[in-house]
Amino acid sequence: MHELSTLDIVAILLFLASIFTYVNIKVLKLPTSIGLMVQALGLSSLLLLLGNFIPGIPEFARDILDKLDFSELLLNLMLSFLLFAGALSTHLEKLREEMWPILTLATVGILITTAIIGTSMYMILPLLGLEVEFIHCLLFGALISPTDPIAVLAMLKNMKVSKSLEIKIAGESLFNDGIGVVIFLTLLHLAEPGGEEFTGGEVALLFGQEVIGGLALGAILGYLLFHAFRVVDTQHVELEVLMTLAGVIGGTQIAHVLHVSAPLAMVVAGLFIGNEGRDLKMAEYKSEYIIKFWHLLDEVLNAILFMLIGLEMLILTLDGRYLWAGLLAIPITVFSRLLGVGIPIRILRRIRPFEKGTIRVLTWGGLRGGISVALALSLPSIPEKGLLVSITYLVVIFSIVVQGLTLRPFIDRINR
Q1: What is the pLDDT of residues 194-231, one digit of tens each?
Q2: 269, 247 Cβ separation under 8 angstroms
Q3: Co-location of 310 and 358 in the same domain
């Protein structure tokens, strides 16, 4: 059989994404992200079924996924592009108005959720005969706690919520993603051999380096790109697009070298370019050129991402106990999100008002997505990896399909 090259795999993915998108538009008429993932789940199920009659088909599909390395592709490449594109279209002034709720939810809320999920799973898994170390349960809490900005922003495009609530949801999803990845990486260091020797000060330093370093890198990158735009001839707008592409790819690599948060850096850079550039110095048509390009790239990458999430079902370890663990993790995750959102907001309500139904919308609208799956797949080869990947996948599927499909009627009911 012909050995598939990287170009072959990319061609297959683009072909499937285009076919699935067409079917969704003409037949399913679901939100794009959900429609693509549902079809990919159906294709995965079909391949597993055909494997009973034609041996080798599921293995061939798994081989493609292994070569693609979903975790590496998303965390080290696609995530930076998607976060930059999402931040580029976010209004900075409105973000500043909701700064304290967003920062509180993206930090305190994530820590609360991580602790509740990790502790709950540590207590429940032994009831199923599954012994998992507490630090690994916390790792699961960290990777499943952040809401996925890619999934959330895709859903918000078709929702009727107030501008204030919309910016809270979008802003929190953009920042808690970066914070969640940092918490995950910090816990991963603690889970490594010798990690128990880390002091509280060293953990705080590691966390601060990732967060503050990422924010600083993003500000520097945005500042340099913005001032570079000012000297570009207005007749060469394509150069601006190339500069943003180089900035995102180069900035991501620099973040990895410096051991700072690339997701946070891309969010800050995107906010800077999307607002300072659009509102102050750049010609209007130039900024629109960049916005449209990144919107198109965002749509294409989203299509591929949600399709890949559905196809990743092929790599799951099928075990009845894992299924029960995943089903139990779903209500735990939703309830922990309720507390992670509700506790900070009830405290903040003493100094500022919040819209009706804010806690409920943020809870049910806190969708998990590809980032959680990618983090689970990036876990080292620990005995519990298969279990944690399976649980993560089941929670993500429920989040995107069930919560995603019911989010609009849920919001409409609250607004009555």
Answers
A1: 666 666 777 788 888 999 999 999 999 999 988 887 77
A2: yes
A3: yes
Per-residue pLDDT band for 31 (boundaries 50, 70, 90) equals confident
Half-sphere exposure of 214 (CA within 13 A, CB side): 25
How many whole angstroms separate alpha carbon 289 and alpha carbon 295? 10
Rounded CA-CA distance 40/181 in Å is 26
Residue 362: CB atoms within 10 A of its CB come to 25
Lowest average pLDDT, out of 74-83, 200-209, 391-400, 405-414, goes to 200-209
Helical ranges in 24-78 per DSSP H: 32-50, 57-68, 70-73
> How far, rounded to the nearest angstrom, does the alpha carbon of residue 125 sit from its chain's CA centroid?
26
Helix, strand, or coil here: 367? coil
With a pLDDT cut of 90, the percent of the chain lying above it is: 50
> Quick one: pLDDT at residue 125?
97
What proportion of the chain, given as a percentage, has pLDDT over 70? 94
With 90 as the cut, is the pLDDT of residue 138 above it? yes
| CA–CA distance, 411 with 416 (Å, rounded to integer) | 9
368 and 241 assigned to the same domain: yes
Q: How far apart are alpha carbons 396 and 63 in whole angstroms? A: 23
Asked if the structure places residue 1 within a domain, the reply is no
* pLDDT (0 to 100) of residue 193: 73
Q: What is the pTM of this model?
A: 0.91
DSSP calls for 235-297: T-HHHHHHHHHHHHHHHHHHHHHHT--HHHHHHHHHHHIIIIIIIIIS-HHHHHHHHHHHHHH
Beta carbons of 191 and 237 less than 8 angstroms apart: no
Helix orientation angle between 385-397 and 320-348, rounded to the nearest 10 degrees: 60
58 and 123 part of one domain: no
Shared domain for 32 and 142, answered yes or no, is no
